[in-house]
Amino acid sequence: MGGPPYDCLANPLGAVRLAFEKAIGSELETPSTHPSAFNGKDWGALELFRHFLFQESGLSQVPILNPKTLRWVQPNSLVRYRGMIQDMLGNEFYAGAYKDGNLWRTNKFMDVSQYPMGSSPDMCIWERRLLYCVPVPGQNSWTEPSSEMEPNWSSQTREKRRRMDDEDNDPMDLVPDDEIKSSPITKKMREDGLPSPSQSRDTKTTSSSSITSTFQSVDKDNLPCLVKIYDSPESELKLNDVFEFIGVLTFDSELAVEKDDNDELSNSFYDDALVHLPPNKVPRLHCLIHRKLAVQDFLPGSPIIEPKPHLVKETREALFRHLTAVLGNDEVAAHFVLLHLLSKVHARVDDVAVGKLSLNLTGLNKESVSVFGTRLSDTFKNLLPFTNCMPLTLEYLNIASLAPKKDYQANRLVPGVLQLPEGSHLMVDETRLESGSLNSTGIENTKLLKNLIEFQKVEYDFQYYKVEMATDVQLLIFSEGKSNIVPADVIVPFQPSCLESTEMPVAEALEAWRWYLATVRSLPHSIGSEIQKVVEDDLVAARQMDRSLGSRDFSRWLTMARLISSSFGETSLSKEHWEMAKEMERLRRERLK
Q1: CA-to-CA distance for 324 and 319, rounded, in angstroms?
Q2: What does each C-alpha distance from 5 to 11, 15, 22, 163, 249 come to in angstroms?
Q3: Do residues 327 and 372 touch, judged by C-beta distance below 8 A?
Q4: Cα–Cα–Cα angle for 331, 337, 339, nearest 5°?
């Protein structure tokens, strides 16, 4: 028995086309289902790809799109793109189905129709969403695939595609620009005053020239991607989320959209002129399937699934010893750094981000931070998927663009330093901050940093108003004294006892520590009624002994206790770990005296 009459990997549009023909019954003189009944929704094509990707283990064969693989991946083949949703460009219309003589054809998952379209009244106009995605800010190299080998297309596959080219004009054969511009339906739509299907719903969209200038200087080491979404509700995809998009690549390194003042293409059915992201700079991916990525999805290989207690404990001890060595044998600081690495926002109560544990290591100057700050930075880069550093100087505060800002002329969200996805780590070096005056930008940036560390929110500037966006970013601050610009949850005076350099851990150890941090950080946690009574009594007693203690201190103690339990792989607080939290707090407060 032969295989399927399509190749999901090399010719995904063939699978889409065959599923479309089957769904409408195109072999009949009168189609059994009119294409308008789909209204742009799936007609069975996605099930073919789900079967190929997840039941036939085809996912591992799909190349991940990046600057290296872009050199050999084929247009109109199946690819994966991993990135953060940096901007949402709205919706666009397109000619989803049309008649070519007596045959119905579809343009779904395509940029350009494979056949000239007539002015048939039966044409179906559908919608798709546009997402501008970028590589995740601060993504570390160990999260990338070690190698992406070019697929060895079999002679059978090549022959199959050659036959399809001869029989049915493969979608890779794009219609020339002059045919697009002179398309009868395009002219008719303009004459009738109807909106072009490629035009965004956003009526504030302005001339494409401004948008063009925004994307012309793309960093060649960081490949953006314009992702087109078809079959998912808007609530599934949010700004700053990290996704893997699997779909049809449309990219041509030699194709450029020419633009002049009377560019008719800007009124056509196609999106290139709408957003004017040059195809030779920004590839297009027509998404078939997408999935939101967690930290575990960036771990190379096959991580251990069940966090067994003995394994968690052994891994914890090994990681703690390494952190202690990195920090010059300061065990107290190493304990707090470990808890800091495990912290995350697991709930929000009013304006309180429950679970965060920002850390301020004090007692550092320019010289010592160049040693220990560099060590910690290198360590975090080897352990965490997304790490970022901020040199907090007066000049930086006065000129940096920390918050994303809406550019209404280009109709684009201009990214800021603090536009970071969930699970990012930000290291702030305040040791080079000197006295001086802050300008209006510096004052605004200071407010942004305080808002981030206290509430885990970032204000996005939409010129006429501001929108608070919730985030989840771990913050570690280096400073000589207590930071007033970035007031952390925990302040720990740093007291190293040696300057000896540490050895680079072996690959097996790094893999185990990455798995440990990702797995333990995601564990659920609860407090039983018995231990809750113990905690309440201890907090009352502590308040009676020290009237300066407040709700913020007690919240920090509870967070520390929860993180200590999680660090041992436990999902409920024990009295032993509550006592450990109290002891860590005692040691910390002694250093502050």
Answers
A1: 9
A2: 11, 8, 13, 12, 21
A3: yes
A4: 110
CA distance linking residue 162 with residue 138, whole number of Å: 43
CB distance 133 to 88 below 8 Å: no
Rounded to an integer, what distance in angstroms lies between the CA atom of residue 134 and that of residue 143?
Answer: 15
Beta bridge partners of 93: 127
List residues bridging with 246 in a β-sheet. Answer: 80, 289
Extract the tokens encoding 37: 């009944």
Residue type, 128: R
- If 0-12 CB within 10 Å is exposed, 13-18 middle and 19+ buried, where does residue 15 land? buried
Among 266, 231, 259, residue whose Cα is nearest residue 245: 231
- Contact between 364 and 494 under an 8 Å Cβ cutoff? The reply is yes
Two structure tokens written together for 350: 């009013």
* Secondary structure (DSSP) of 476-511: EEE-SS--SSS--SEEEE------PPPPPPPHHHHH
Question: Residue 260: what pLDDT?
Answer: 40
State the Cα–Cα distance between residues 554 and 539, nearest whole angstrom: 7
Taking the C-alpha atoms of residue 492 and residue 112, their distance in angstroms, rounded to an integer, is 59
Q: Give me the sheet containing 466-470, strands edge to edge.
A: 412-414, 405-407, 457-461, 466-470
Angle made by CA atoms 460, 466, 468, in degrees to the nearest 5: 60
At position 273, the amino acid (one-letter code) is A
487 is written with which tokens? 């007031």
Please name the residues in contact with 284: beta carbons below 8 A apart, sequence gap of 6 or more: 111, 225, 226, 227, 228, 249, 250, 251, 271
Question: d(Cα 154, Cα 554) in Å, to the nearest integer?
Answer: 65
Helix, strand or coil, per DSSP, at residue 420: coil
- Report which of 431, 295, 292 is spatially closest to residue 371, judged by C-alpha positions: 431
User: What is the pLDDT at residue 214?
Assistant: 30
pLDDT beneath 70: ranges in the chain: 1-5, 26-32, 118-120, 146-220, 251-280, 302-305
Buried b / exposed e across 218-256, counting CB within 10 Å, b at 16+?
beeeebbbbbbbbeeeeeebebbbbbbbbbbbbbeeeee
CB atoms within 10 A of CB 95: 25
Burial-class residue 268 by CB neighbours within 10 Å (0-12, 13-18, 19+).
buried
pLDDT single digits (tens) 302-314: 555 677 888 899 9
Question: Cα(217)–Cα(184) distance, rounded to whole angstroms?
Answer: 36
CA dist., res. 338 & res. 169, Å (int) = 59
- Report pTM: 0.83
pLDDT value at residue 250: 86
What is the spatial distance between Cα 252 and Cα 257, in angstroms, rounded to a whole number? 11
> pLDDT digits over 514-552, tens only?
999 999 998 898 898 899 999 999 999 988 888 888 888
Q: Give 409's contacts (C-beta < 8 A, 6+ positions apart).
A: 206, 210
Quick one: tokens of 8? 């999901």
Q: What residue type is 357 in one-letter code?
A: L
**Helix, strand, coil percentages, rounded to 5, for the chain:** 40, 20, 45
Residue 524 to residues 144, 331, 385, 457, Cα–Cα distance (Å): 28, 27, 21, 23
Other C-beta atoms lying within 10 Å of the C-beta of residue 421: 24
